[in-house]
Write a structure and sequence with these properties.
The structure is a homodimer of 155-residue chains.
Chain A lengths: L1 E9 L10 E11 L4 E8 L2 E10 L5 E9 L1 H8 L7 E10 L2 E8 L7 E7 L12 E4 L8 H6 L6
Antiparallel strand pairs in A: 1-5, 1-8, 1-9, 2-3, 2-6, 3-4, 4-5, 6-7, 7-8
Chain lengths: 155, 155
C-alpha cells in the first residue's frame, strides 16, 4: 500500500494526558537507506517486519509493506540489524477522525518527540492540537532509519 | 534456524536428466551485505522473503529466516530492490538421503552453474555425483547477493 503521512515536532508533553494507548517500541534496521528501508520492530508483545520504499516527490507518500511476525523471530532478527537500535514510547491520541502517533525517544535520541498523522489523501485537512509544533515531513533527519545512524544527540 | 550448506561448481549439464523438479527463479535484494541479506524471491507462482545473517567461522552455517508471501506482494517488493536482479532455473536432484539444488544462471551470470546441498551437521557425509565439480562454499563471490552486484560475466 501507499502510506500518506505528515510529521511534526511536539512543543511539550501535554499530549500525554490525552493518550489512549502507550507502548514501548524497540526497532532495528536491516537496511536503513531511504530507497529500501527494512525494519524489525518489537511493540509490546508483538513483532513486525516492515519494508518501505522511497518517498514520492511531495515527500508525503511512501510505499509500505508490513507483516506481523512472532516476537521470538523479531528478537532474533533485531540481533542482525545495523548499529543504532531505536528505543521509544509511542502514545496514541485520537483527535476528530484522526489519530496522532506521538513518539518520545530515549537513549541517543532522548529529547526528541515527534508526532505523525496518517491521511487518506495529500490534501486532507485535520485538527491541530496546541502541543503540535513545526512540520518536518520533508526533513529526512527525522526518519527513524536516519535517527538510528545519526541520533539526535549528535546533531 | 541455522542453515548448513555446501556449495560446488558443476562440470556439465548431465544433472538435468536426473532432475525431479525444475523452477524458474527471479530474485532481488533489499540488502546484499553478507551480515544482513534481505532477499525477495519469486519461484514459479510463489513469493518468498528471506533474511540471512553472517556465516560462522567455518563458512558452513548461517542464520536463515524465511516466510512465504503472496506473489503480488513479492512483485511489488522486487521493484524496490537494488540493481542486479538474479534470473535462474533451479533443478532438484535427489541423491541418497539428500537433495542437490542446482542453479543454472541467465543474463549477466550466464555460464555459471552452482550445486548446493543442505546438511544436518558440518561433518555429515553425502554421495558425490560425477557432474559435481570443485567446492566453493567459502568463496563469497558465489553468494547470490554478491552475484547480483558483481555478476559472473564481469569477473
Amino acid at each position: 500500500m501507499i502510506e500518506i503521512e505528515r510529521k511534526f515536532l511536539v512543543k511539550n508533553d501535554s499530549f500525554k494526558k490525552a493518550a489512549s494507548t502507550e507502548n514501548r517500541i524497540t526497532q532495528g534496521y536491516l537496511s536503513s537507506v531511504a530507497e529500501r528501508t527494512v525494519r524489525v520492530r518489537i511493540k509490546g508483545n508483538k513483532g513486525f517486519l516492515t519494508i518501505k520504499g522511497a518517498s514520492n516527490e511531495s515527500g508525503l507518500s511512501r510505499f509500505e509493506w508490513e507483516k506481523e511476525i512472532p516476537i521470538e523471530e523479531a528478537k532474533k532478527l533485531i540481533l542482525l540489524s545495523e548499529a543504532g537500535v531505536i528505543d521509544k514510547t509511542r502514545f496514541e491520541i485520537k483527535m476528530g477522525n484522526h489519530t496522532f502517533e506521538v513518539d518520545e525517544f530515549y537513549g541517543d535520541n532522548s529529547g526528541l518527540i515527534i508526532a505523525e498523522i496518517e491521511l487518506s489523501s495529500e490534501t486532507e485537512t485535520f485538527l491541530k492540537p496546541d502541543w503540535l509544533g513545526d512540520e518536518v515531513t520533508n526533513d529526512i533527519r527525522y526518519y527513524n532509519a536516519y535517527l538510528s545512524t545519526k541520533p539526535y544527540n549528535k546533531w
